[in-house]
Structures are given as C-alpha cells and as structure tokens.
Design a protein that fits this description.
The strands form four sheets. Strands 6-7-11-9-10-8 form a six-stranded mixed β-sheet. A hairpin with a 6-residue loop joins β6 and β7. The radius of gyration is 28 Å and the shape is flat. α11 runs parallel beside α14. It contains 19 helices and 13 strands. The protein has three domains: 72 residues, DNA Binding (I), subunit A, CATH 1.10.30.50; 151 residues, Conserved hypothetical protein from pyrococcus furiosus pfu- 392566-001, ParB domain (Alpha-Beta Complex), CATH 3.90.1530; 243 residues, no CATH class. By secondary structure, it is of the alpha/beta class.
Amino acid sequence: MAFAMRRQLKPEEKEIVLKRHGRICYATGHEIPEGDVIHFDHINAYSAGGETDLNNVAPMCQKHNLEKGTLPLEHFRIKLKIDEFFRQGDRLTLKNLLEYLKKSGEIKGFGERITAVETDNKIKIENHSFSRTFELQECPLTKWKYFYCTLPVSLIDSDDDDNEQFGLQPRYLIPEKVFEMFRHFLDYPVLQPSIGRIVNGRLLLFDGQHKAAALLWSGRQNFECKIYLNPEINRLNQANISAHDKFAQTRFYASIMILKLGAVFGKDFEAYKDDDSIKEKTEVGFIDYLAKNNTSLAKADITKRFRSYLYDAILNNADNKCEPLISKSNKGSKEQPLTFDMISKSIFLNFLCRDPLFDNILTDDYKRDAETKNIIRFMNGMFDRSLVNWNAGSGCDAQLKLKRIFTSKAIIAWSELVRDAVCVRLKINDSDDKAKIFYRDVADSAFDELDEIWQRLFEWKLWRSPKNSEIDTRIAGNKSTTKAWMKEMGLTVTYLLGMDE
C-alpha cells in the first residue's frame, strides 16, 4: 500500500503498521508499554528520499525516536549496537568485535587455523571449510612475499599481543570512526585492502581494522586483504606504526599512541637490559643503540617513543587512581575530565624527567622506578584531595569548582606553581635537580607535606566563586595570563606553602 509523500499517517494506517510490527520499538526490539507514546518513522529516511509507504514505516518509542535525530532508522539501529559494543571498554580491537559478534550469533566464528603451501610462485590457503590458491607478489625493496585475496570472516583475526606472539595491531577501535566508515561503505567501495600476515597458521590483520569493523556492522562476511608471508617483524612493525602515526589520515588518539609506542619501546628496552654484550647500560646509550640499529627511525622519533614509554608506565599503572578519569580520546568528557594532553603539559612537563639519562641502569643511581612510583603517589594525592569527588551528573557547586580546577589552561598554569612549591618542600634548589624532582627516593613524611600543598591549592577561595564569575573568563585564556592572574589573586607559591606573603 502506497500513499502520497507526507510525514503524518492516518489512524487506520498506524493500525496497519502496528499489526505488522506489534508494539515493538524498531530501534532495539524492546516492547513499548501500554500508555507510552508511539512514534512512527521511516525505515529509509524521509529526508533522504525514503517513500512514505507503509512498508517503509515502523513504530518507535519516543526516547529512541528523539535520539535518532536525522539518521536513517537502519543506521540508528546499528549505532545503538555499536554503542552497546563499546560500553565494554575503551581499549577494544577487531578481535573484541569478532568475539562480540560471535557471542551474539551474528557470525559463526573467526580466526580458524589454516595451512599455507607455497609452490611455483603461488600459495594455497586451506582448512576444513576453505581452499583457494593465490598468486604471490614480491616487494621490490624488502623482497618480502605477499598475496592479495578475499577471505571469509571465519579465517581472519586481529594481530593483537597474546601468549604466542607479539602483535602488530597499533591502535584501538574509535567508536565515531567505526560508525562513520559503516555509513560511508554503504554507498562507496573500499579502496584499500586490510593488511595482515600469517603467524602459526593464523591470518592476522594489523592494518585496516576500522574498515573491517565497519564492514562487519554492515553484514559483510568476506574481506579483501593483502597478506605477508615472512616479513621482518621489527621492520614491518616500525613501518606500521609510522603509517598509523606520521602518515595517518586519521590521527591516533594521543593516549592510544602513548600506550602502543610505550609498549613497543618497553620490549626493546628490556631486551637491551638483558644484552650481556653491553657492559655500560644507560638510557642515552639505548637511544644511540636503537638509532644505529634502526636507520629508518630518526633519533627524535626514538626519543618520542622513549617518552611514551615513561608516560605509559605512569598512566596505565594499576595503582594510578586518576587513570579511570583520563580520556582515551583527545577530548575530555563529563565522565573523564582529564586528557593525555592536559597531563603531559602539566604533571609530566613539570615533575617527570622526560629526557634520557646517563645513569647506569644496573646501579642504585638509576631511579626511574622510584620516579614512576613517586609521580603516581603524587597524582594520587591530587586525586584524593579533589577528583575523588568528581560526579559527572552533578551540577552542584562542588562540581563547578572541580570543573574550574581541571580545565586545560588552569591545570597547566597552577601545575607550575605547585612545582615551585614542591621544590621548596623537598629542598631542591639546583636547576639540574629541579629537572628531576621525583627522580630520587622520597620519604613518606615528605609526601605528607606535599599533600598539604594539594589541600591548599584546592581550598583556594576563588575556585568557589559563583557561576559566571571572573574566574571563568580568566581560566579560558592562555597559560601565561591565567597564571599571572592566579598569582595576582593570591594563588602563589607562598600561599601553597602556608606562609605569610
């Protein structure tokens, strides 16, 4: 039954739709209780040319219809499913999605083992349900062999770390990107294949996981791939990270890049520590060692990864109480007010020795572990005096105060004042020592004094100013003007130390 293009249905037409679908919300399949308002919407969007035909109309609950906005109803249904998947956590990969879809019954399985037999410049891939032969290619630069193929979902897996091998998957899935690509691929082709390798009879994808994830949500069961046979793992890993960092069209979330680069660097650093042929081991020596043995990386890139290693040891430590409040994206949210950018430009910039050191890592003079523990304890003091009370849904005065304290410009400005106060408390006067504030053993009693600095900071009276006060304008400025205003209004090092001006 068709009728004129219009937005409203007649009562008898609504009854026909309800008889077909029942009082079931088309978005999620939940029952709409008696007495609740029922909305009727186009399955294929009216704004996109979807016909106002009863075959293109379905009932929805009021909540989901309002949330849907201008999205086509089918797209909105997928968005809700994607949102449900990502509620599992913020460090999810293609493997997590495959496991999720298998559990929900949307795919039968994934990651099945295969045999690969190479003959006459061809390779045969087979297992109990699949058998195909593909032409082999050779990279003119590296001489690595690879082949192009279309693989069923039952054979693919994500190249994550596991007990058997070191994974090459350099990033986590980003919800917004998965949904955007899902919509894009409904109308446009995929221009590049996903890239993977064969490891212990498994086909592991390390590039193109967002493409694969988006296609999975659209119901795709077969995926175009480029598969390497026996690549040099370290060189491939460096190329892969660069592809997802320097040359990526969509940049990494900073915190994810830190986690991945830090993990890779950490494995290399541990191998360096265990190398008995090197007698004098230092961080500077390690940087030089990597530069000499990896000509594809500039020393600046290696230093960047070294810092990522230091950041990762602090940010992703189970003892760090602030970790749940640090956003994995580049922007904060109501639930996660801190970002990696904020922490790196405040706490890390002022309290972490970010440059490689000459101290022998095999002696007691080497204090990186102590520094890591000290900074985590210092950040936990910040948490206990303030962020422990963070309440994303609250609009109370206490929450307004915390929002002001942890705006980007505010934390960058007051962290410099806190640094100077900490140096006084720890009796650090030498400029070289000030660059390594926590690179030392710090007594428990000293942390009691540092907690008093946190308390004084968070008790500063202007944090409690009424809404739309001068402070709200001031903390939106740049760091220098914000810091100067704070000092002018009494937030000084002397104040933080509890002394008279």
